[in-house]
């Protein structure tokens, strides 16, 4: 995965078999239906993702076990070993779908901008802190637009102004260095949460994101232990070091 270290992402086509996707999709659809019932007001207001699939009561023990087995499987672990300098830990899960309003604009961002860090702190953190998304689409979608290398490099002036709505720019403006990566069912896009990126809405997207992070105190502060497997589930998993808190 040398490409990840340089570019901040790696795209792997046909990474999952149809059987693997079918098994996990049933669980994701069940979660999503129940989540929508309870969060319709937020969906109406423009929310376009949910999180924490492995906590709460939407999924039963068997479904959570299957989801954790998917998350901790060996071929994902093999990627993690090349991406992270040391063994990472599980952070969370997210589901991404289209906003209800088809006219809603997407937005360039770095995940780190929502942590409360100052700009100077963010510039330092992207050099030595790692959060990585595994984007796994359940169906063909327009994908993600990334600005390569920005997992370690700071914004150009244009990018900073767009991302932060400065000097008349807005976060949905196009960026010259943006690179769109379309995704198909069975693919996986591994990318740094530090980098400048945005989702491309449309095509009724439905994607699972699994997030991992460095096992450091700064990251542990963002972990909700309720998202972690129970002792009973842990006994049925490989690569349990991902869940050692």
TrEMBL record:
Keyword Hydrolase: no
Keyword Ligase: no
One Pfam family, short name: PhyH
Cofactor(s) essential for the protein: Fe(2+)
Keywords recorded for this protein, A-Z: Dioxygenase, Oxidoreductase
Annotated coiled-coil segments of the chain: none
InterPro entries per UniProt: Phytyl_CoA_dOase-like (IPR008775)
PANTHER family per the UniProt record, alphabetical: ECTOINE DIOXYGENASE, PHYTANOYL-COA DIOXYGENASE DOMAIN CONTAINING 1
Protein name per Swiss-Prot or TrEMBL: Phytanoyl-CoA dioxygenase family protein
Organism: Flavobacterium microcysteis
């Amino acid at each position: 995965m040398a490409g990840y270290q340089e570019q901040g992402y790696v795209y792997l086509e046909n990474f999952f078999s149809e059987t693997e996707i079918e098994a996990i999709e049933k669980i994701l659809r069940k979660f999503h239906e129940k989540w929508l019932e309870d969060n319709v007001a937020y969906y109406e207001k423009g929310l376009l993702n949910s999180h924490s699939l492995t906590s709460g009561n939407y999924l039963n023990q068997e479904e959570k076990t299957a989801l954790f087995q998917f998350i901790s499987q060996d071929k994902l672990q093999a990627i993690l070993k090349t991406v992270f300098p040391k063994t990472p830990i599980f952070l969370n899960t997210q589901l991404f779908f289209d906003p209800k309003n088809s006219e809603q604009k997407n937005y360039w961002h770095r995940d780190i901008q929502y942590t409360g860090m100052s700009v100077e702190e963010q510039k330092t953190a992207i050099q030595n802190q790692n959060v990585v998304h595994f984007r796994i689409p359940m169906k063909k979608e327009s994908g993600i637009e990334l600005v390569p290398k920005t997992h370690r490099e700071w914004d150009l002036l244009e990018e900073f102004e767009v991302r932060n709505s400065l000097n008349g720019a807005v976060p949905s403006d196009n960026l010259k260095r943006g690179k769109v990566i379309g995704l198909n069912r069975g693919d996986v896009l591994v990318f740094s949460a530090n980098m400048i990126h945005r989702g491309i809405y449309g095509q009724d997207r439905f994607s699972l994101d699994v997030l991992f992070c460095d096992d450091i105190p700064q990251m542990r502060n963002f972990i909700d232990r309720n998202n972690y497997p129970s002792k009973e589930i842990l006994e049925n998993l490989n690569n349990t070091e991902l869940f050692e808190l």
